Amino acid sequence: MGQKLARSALITRRADGNLLIASARLFLTISHKDREKRYNKC
Question: pTM of the predicted model, to two decimals?
């Protein structure tokens, strides 16, 4: 029981980490595109 719970917690933690990485990457690409737009305006 405890081992199963620990394993599911580990999987959840890993999924949270992947989600965090994905959202950070998405944020970086969005800010990069926004910066490119600003440079193109000038």
Answer: 0.56
